[in-house]
Every structure is written in structure tokens, then in C-alpha cells.
Amino acid sequence: MIRLAVRVRREQAELVLAELLELAPSGVEEVSVGSGEIVEYAVYGAPGELPALPELTAAAGSALVEVRTDEIADDWSERWREFHRPLVLDGGRLVVRPPWEPAFDAAVELVIDPGQAFGTGAHPTTRLCLELMLSLPASGAFLDLGCGSGVLAIAASRLGFSPVTAVDFDPVAVAAASENAAVNGVVLEVRRHDLRVDPVVVAPTVTANLLRPLLLVWAKRLPEVSELELPERVIASGLLGGEADEIAGAFAGVGLVESARRESGDWAALVLHRGC
Fold first, then answer.
1. Is it the case that residue 276 has pLDDT exceeding 70?
2. Is the omega angle on the peptide bond into residue 124 within 30 degrees of 0, that is, cis?
3. Which class would CATH give 84-274?
4. pLDDT at residue number 101
5. pLDDT above 90 covers what percent of the chain?
6. Which of 37, 128, 159, 202 is the most exposed place for a label (fewest CB within 10 A)?
């Protein structure tokens, strides 16, 4: 088995990812490198099954930092499973586990297959979102903007938000979120959405676990909805700690003011409330 990895600059990671998924539609692994300024995307496969290096170079473009290949040991699939452990939050109030782990005695338990799409709860940005969701009143409509595997939207539904909408630009994520919703017995509206060009979507509560450039785009476009339609609260994640003040300022300009901040390692997440 071969692991083929592409390292790119974080500020261009979302655009590169969209191109890479055209070459590897079953999904890619995402890993932060060093201080978080570089993102590594990796695909696995037998020799001859992986995208060609010229294709990867073209997809990454000016964001490319490095391309490398490594041989993976025969037992890699078992070791990969050992890497994905259950996530237990708020003293067991919420648990996210892969399907091969035994069930927990938890108030809310989610089963998410980490092989389907991005967002199992383990990454600090997703975990920060879940922690902040647990601190909010769970009622009213909810939007998961950039849903990945759908873990935040599924958690929202199980916590009591309704109706719940999950959108993502990546069709693989849309399919995975729909499947994970069915596995967890929740009803979501899941659809493909490009926040850069499609009409702006909002809800009273929004999670936006996105990279800095996309958060800035969404903040800039929010005035396209009326003031009464603005979200009551937004959890903005996907941020490096040094980016949090800039994002908070961008949303303050449209009437969403920071009311809480939480950090984990190099990452940060904000809670923004309307008219605070």
C-alpha cells in the first residue's frame, strides 16, 4: 500500500482540496503540519491506482509545498483503526465513536465512520465546535455550514435543534453526511452549496467550521440577508489562534459580536452573538 501526500499552504487549502477531490473522489486524509500554516492531504492505494504526480502538481498549483510517497505496512488498516478512538465530551454527555468501537452509556452517542469524509470529532476544530454547542440552548433551526461528515449537524439534531440543515461544497461530504444521518437515525436537509456564489443561507444557530478565507467570504456576504434574518449565534471554527481577532472583527462589522472564545493547541473557535 502506498501513501501519496501533498503539502500546501493553508490559505489556499480549500481551493486545492476541491481540485484534489476531482482526482480522488473517495476522499483524502487531512493533517496539519508544524505550526498549522501547512496542510497535508494524503490518499492511499496500491501502486498504479493513485493519481499521477503531474495531476497532483497541477491541482495544487502555486500552493504546492511538497509531494511525497511512502510505503505503508501491511497492517496499516488495523493501525488506522487504533488511531480513531471515541471522543467523550462534558463528562459523557456527548460521545462520538467509530462504528467498530462498543456503545457507550451516554446521553447523546454519535457513530461516525472516519473513512467517509472529513470531521469525526477528533480534530481540534470539530471538537471545539461540539464543546461550544453543548454550552448553547438547543432549540430552533440549525445550519452546519461546511458539514463534512455531518457530525455537527447530527449532534445538533440529537441535542434538540430542529430543523437542521447541512451544506458542503464537496459532493463526497454531502453523500457521507446523508449516510451518517441515516445511521444515527436523524433527519437532516443535506445539500451541496458553494458559499462563495450561491445565495447566502442562514439559521438562528450556525456552525461554520471553515478555514479563514471562507469565513471572511461568508462574513462579507452576510449583509445580503436582512438584519432580521441574521443568525442569533454563530460558532466559527477552523481558525488558528492568530486569526481569531481578524475573524471576530469581520463578523462584528455585520452585527455579530464575539461573546466567547475557546482554544485548543494552535486552534481557536469563537461564539458570535447578534447585537451583544
1. no
2. no
3. alpha beta
4. 81
5. 46
6. 37
> What residue ranges do the domains of the chain occupy?
2-78, 84-274
Residue 204: per-residue pLDDT: 97
One fold for both 2-78 and 84-274?
A: no
Q: How far apart are CA 185 and CA 181, in angstroms?
A: 6
Residue range 210-237: mean pLDDT, rounded: 94
Question: What pLDDT, on the 0 to 100 scale, is given for residue 249?
Answer: 97
Instruction: Domain 2-78: give its CATH superfamily.
Output: BMC (bacterial microcompartment) domain (3.30.70.1710)
In sequence order, what DSSP letters do the residues of the chain get, joined into one string?
A: -EEEEEEEEGGGHHHHHHHHHHH-TT--EEEEETTTTEEEEEEEE-TTTSPPHHHHHHHHGGGEEEEEEEE--TTHHHHHHHH---EEEGGGTEEEE-TTSPP---SEEEE--TTTSS--S-SHHHHHHHHHHHTS---S-EEEES-TTSHHHHHHHHHT--SEEEEES-HHHHHHHHHHHHHTT---EEEE--TTTSPP---SEEEEE--HHHHHHHHHHGGGS-GGGS-SEEEEEEEEGGGHHHHHHHHHTTTEEEEEEEEETTEEEEEEEET-
CA distance 166 to 175: 11
Residue showing cell 447585537: 275
Closest CA to 27 of 38, 13, 17, 36: 17
pLDDT of residue 59: 82
Task: Find the angle CA(64)-CA(24)-CA(18) to the nearest 5 degrees.
Answer: 55
